[in-house]
Amino acid sequence: MSFTSGLQLPQPIPAPVRLHNSLKSLQPFIISSSKFPFPIWLQEQTNLPFTGVADLLERKITSRLSASSILSSIKVLNSANSFLSPIKTALFASVNSEGSAIYMSKKFRNLLNLNSMNVKGAVEELITINQGQQIYLKDLIKNSKRIWEGEVEIITQSNKSIWLEMSIIPLKNINSKQKTLILCADISVRKQNEIKFEKLSVDKYNEQIETQKMISSKIIDAQEEERKRVAKDIHDGIGQMLTALKFTVESININKIASSAEKIGNLNSLTKQIIKGVRMATFNLTPPELTDHGISSAIQTLTTQLSKLTSKNIVFENKTNFYERLDSLVETNLYRITQEAVNNAIKYAKSNFILVNIKHNKDVLSITIEDDGIGFDLKSVKKVDSGKGMGLLFMEERVKYIDGRLFINSEKEKGTQIVINMYLD
Q: Which residues pair with 407 in a beta bridge?
């Protein structure tokens, strides 16, 4: 056989190349000929390092094995899951029937911290120093009757952990010492990123679990506090007034007309106070306006009463005249979220002006609560372990329950804006 190229290659060239099939036609470029390891022989003849088929083509080294034949052979192997991709072919080794390495590419040797003199013996012992990994690789190489590919972690001679995407290709019906071809790609960076991502996912999951536990605990505490508050309101307010009503009625003496008339007048005033107390208690639990007239009327009543009680300027605007009725659970959750937002603005924001507006279009209902208070740092308040911001977490949970969206924008000394959006059916 003779070669012609821009390079002056010495003659004659040993080791005739035989093209029996598409795989074997590529054999001289990736494994040895029947006499000499072809890549090593080519280096000796040209004094140039060999890195793969692409390298040969770049140097314009041609032979009776034409470029079209090479490319055709490459296509055959590429159809088998792209085993000769540029990344993989840089890291390859050929193995004989006894499992010993015959040749290993320079990049593969460098990756494994080997030199050309070290490439001797069992290939699995060259690839890794870990005995468990050696046994695993030996079994794969020995028993692979079909092309195998997968990801393996190895420990190099320098005790460095590396992840390889490996393909083990048994070479059948080839008259040479090579019985197995190992192609690899270094995927260590990708695996490290995957591990980091998994860790972040686990941390995020654990954080969500802790948040849910905290929310559940706080909900139970809030329910208990609400029961105590209702009991206290009834006992101290309505209960005391009912007791006074009872004693007043019992003290009336029909024989004493003057004193009885005065007591009857007191009964009228006391009865009005009891009615007012009952209404306030029921309003705090479930406002009648919400049940009777819907979310817009309930929020308007809420802002009016809180403005009277706190002497703050709390204004409600129904910008698009929304008076439609929604599902009762949706209305209740929208009301509670708005109530929480307004109460937070009153208690913590030190605001003088609070604006609540509601607007809608054919698809979306939007409720906005704005104040001119001191604002807050959202990230620090929302930390689970900070013990703060449980009201915000409750708001978020309620919004999720009705498939809505919650947007919170706050800056210190610049006030807070909270927007609740939900799709209308």
A: 419
**Eight-state DSSP code of residue 360:** E
Q: What are the contacts of 271-275 at 24+ separation with CB within 8 A?
A: 271/245, 273/241, 274/238, 274/241, 274/242, 274/245
* Diameter of the chain measured on Cα atoms: 145
Alpha-helix residue ranges (DSSP H) falling in 61-154 = 67-78, 86-89, 106-111, 123-127, 131-143
Residue 402 DSSP label? T
Residue 188: partners with Cβ closer than 8 Å, 6 or more residues away:
161, 162, 163
Q: Name 253's Cβ contacts closer than 8 Å, sequence gap at least 6.
A: 259, 260
Q: Is 193 exposed, middle or buried (0-12, 13-18, 19+ CB in 10 A)?
A: exposed
Contact 417, 369 (CB under 8 A): yes
Residues 6 or more apart whose CB falls under 8 angstroms from that of 250 comprise none
The tens digit of pLDDT for each residue in 41-52 reads 334 333 334 444
Bridge partners, residue 96, by sequence: 178
Please answer whether residues 103 and 31 qualify as being in contact, where contact means their C-beta atoms are separated by less than 8 angstroms: yes
With b for 16 or more beta-carbon neighbours within 10 A and e for fewer, the 56-65 pattern comes to beeeebebeb
Say yes or no to pLDDT of 170 above 50.
Answer: yes
| DSSP secondary structure string for all residues of 261-300 | HHHHHHHHHHHHHHHHHHHHHHHHHS-HHHHHH-HHHHHH
Q: Is the pLDDT of residue 403 over 70?
A: yes
Nearest CA among 179, 173, 167 for reference residue 137: 167
Q: Partners of 103 in the beta sheet?
A: 94
Strand bridging mode 313-318 / 353-360 = parallel
Residues 298, 114: Cα–Cα separation, whole Å:
78
pLDDT of residue 388: 53
Q: Which two tokens stand for residue 333?
A: 């959750």
In a 3-state reduction of DSSP, which class is residue 156? coil
Q: Which residues pair with 298 in a beta bridge?
A: none
Q: Which amino acid is at 68?
A: S
pLDDT tens-digit readout, 343-400: 889 888 888 899 999 999 999 999 999 999 998 888 777 665 555 567 788 888 889 8
Q: Could you tell me if 107 and 51 are in contact, meaning their C-beta atoms sit under 8 angstroms apart? A: yes
Tokens of 348: 């913590």
Q: Which residues contact 110 (CB under 8 A, 6 or more apart)?
A: none
